[in-house]
């Protein structure tokens, strides 16, 4: 058993600004995979953790959900943010372990099964066409992220929830502020108290939705959540609004990041765009490659319930591990030329959706949205190029591009 390894490169994983500089980020992660794949990180403001950067180790940890638990620390936050969220009592699926996780996950599971996805595909295809058609009126230059990338997935998830279109802009503001609370442009204010208001306002919104759906049930996902029971008992208020929040926020921002990041990748790799235009049957593989390339969820965390080892390194009971998907999906031991964007990559064993019991509930929906959008856009693109620099948001959890100025012509 090896001694505790401390590699300064691992400190980048706690720095939101590093995710705005992909060359720097990936240089550090490649160094860690080669030299310190299990590295102890202790930085000011955060409780210490182990950085796990190899694909195989992350998969092993996710399989061992009885040993490595989501509670009490599912994502990397500052100690202050941890305490604030604990005080609010947030309890989403990512905070839970079995059996509670299994019971609560089941409430929404039917809405993401193949039969439900087939029924939803008509709406997703309609929205994809609507947003690509709208691009005809925006040209010849605009910011793809802010005009299309963030809105298309939002319309899909809000339609599933059955929420009025007039509320969509406000929900977009909440989700951007929640996941962009480390980004000076996107965050709500500069103090933690101001930033917490976005979460509290979202919770207030969904508390009203719950009351409405309980008084007048409808045939949508919002009603299914509001009227759900576990062992004959309704969900608590915090469990209900937490469920809405994870569906609305995670279901939106992750897909938004891949749609925008996927288009950016096609622009930067015109040979792959031409290849896709010549063979649209590659869309399913291209979708998986975009997901791997962007890896919108940068990390999740687990906490050891007992002393154990990872790659020969002792992990003590109560210590946390950070699972770096940004690193895992560039692992040289798993992917042929991992820094090559290849729309025909097969196999593509990315773990951007996680693995095991916490595999992303909305993975099928995300795949469908990405597939539908690029199936509509790619055949109609006559030309496309950057009209300015692409900009990434500062984050250590979920995110991607916040600006993608493009110049294009469509049919």
Short description:
The protein has helices spanning 22-35, 55-63, 79-88, 100-109, 114-138, 144-149, 151-161, 168-179, 192-215, 221-226, 237-268, 270-278, 283-294, 325-328, 363-377, and strands at 38-41, 49-52, 68-69, 141-143, 229-230, 233-234, 299-304, 308-310, 313-315, 320-324, 381-386, 391-392, 401-403, 405-410.
Could you walk me through the main structural features you see in this protein, from its secondary elements to its overall organization?
- This protein is of the alpha+beta class.
- It has one domain: Cytochrome P450 (Cytochrome p450, Orthogonal Bundle), CATH 1.10.630.10.
- The chain contains 15 helices and 14 strands.
- The strands form 5 sheets. The chain has a 5-stranded mixed beta sheet. The chain has a 3-stranded antiparallel beta sheet with strand order 4-14-11. The chain has a two-stranded antiparallel ribbon with strand order 5-6.
- A hairpin with an 8-residue loop joins strand 12 and strand 13 (401-403).
- Helix 5 (114-138) packs across helix 7 (151-161), helix 8 packs across helix 11 (237-268) and helix 13 crosses helix 15 (363-377).
- It is globular and about 60 Å long.
């Amino acid at each position: 058993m090896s001694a505790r390894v401390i590699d300064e490169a691992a400190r980048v994983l706690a720095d939101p600004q590093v995710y705005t500089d992909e060359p720097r980020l990936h240089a550090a992660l490649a160094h860690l995979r080669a030299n310190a794949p299990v590295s102890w990180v202790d930085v000011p403001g955060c409780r210490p953790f182990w950085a796990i950067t190899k694909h195989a180790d992350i998969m092993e940890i996710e399989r061992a959900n009885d040993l490595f638990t989501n509670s009490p620390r599912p994502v990397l936050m500052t100690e202050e943010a941890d305490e604030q969220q604990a005080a609010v009592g947030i309890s989403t699926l990512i905070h839970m372990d079995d059996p509670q996780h299994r019971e609560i996950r089941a409430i929404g599971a039917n809405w993401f099964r193949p039969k439900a996805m087939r029924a939803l595909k008509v709406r997703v295809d309609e929205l994809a066409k609507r947003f690509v058609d709208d691009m005809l009126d925006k040209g010849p230059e605009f910011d793809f992220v802010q005009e299309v990338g963030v809105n298309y997935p939002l319309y899909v998830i809000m339609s599933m929830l059955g929420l009025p279109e007039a509320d969509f802009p406000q929900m977009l503001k909440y989700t951007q502020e929640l996941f962009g609370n480390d980004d000076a442009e996107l965050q709500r204010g500069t103090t933690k108290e101001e930033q917490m208001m976005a979460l509290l306002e979202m919770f207030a919104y969904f508390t009203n939705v719950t009351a409405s759906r309980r008084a007048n049930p409808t045939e949508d996902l919002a009603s299914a959540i509001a009227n759900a029971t576990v062992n004959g008992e309704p969900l608590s208020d915090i469990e209900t609004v937490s469920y809405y929040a994870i569906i609305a926020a995670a279901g939106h921002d992750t897909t938004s990041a891949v749609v925008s990041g996927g288009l950016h990748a096609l622009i930067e790799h015109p040979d792959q765009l031409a290849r896709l235009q010549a063979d649209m049957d590659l869309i399913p593989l291209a979708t998986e490659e975009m997901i791997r390339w962007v890896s919108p969820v940068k990390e999740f965390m687990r906490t050891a319930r007992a002393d154990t080892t990872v790659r020969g390194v002792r992990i003590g009971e109560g210590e946390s591990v950070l699972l770096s998907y940004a690193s895992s999906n560039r692992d040289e031991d798993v992917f042929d030329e991992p820094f090559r964007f290849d729309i025909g990559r097969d196999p593509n064993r990315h773990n951007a959706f996680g693995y095991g019991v916490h595999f992303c509930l909305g993975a099928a929906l995300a795949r469908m949205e990405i597939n539908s959008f690029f199936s509509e856009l790619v055949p109609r693109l006559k030309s496309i190029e950057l009209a300015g620099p692409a900009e990434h948001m500062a984050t250590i959890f979920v995110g991607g591009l916040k600006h993608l100025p493009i110049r294009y012509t469509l049919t």
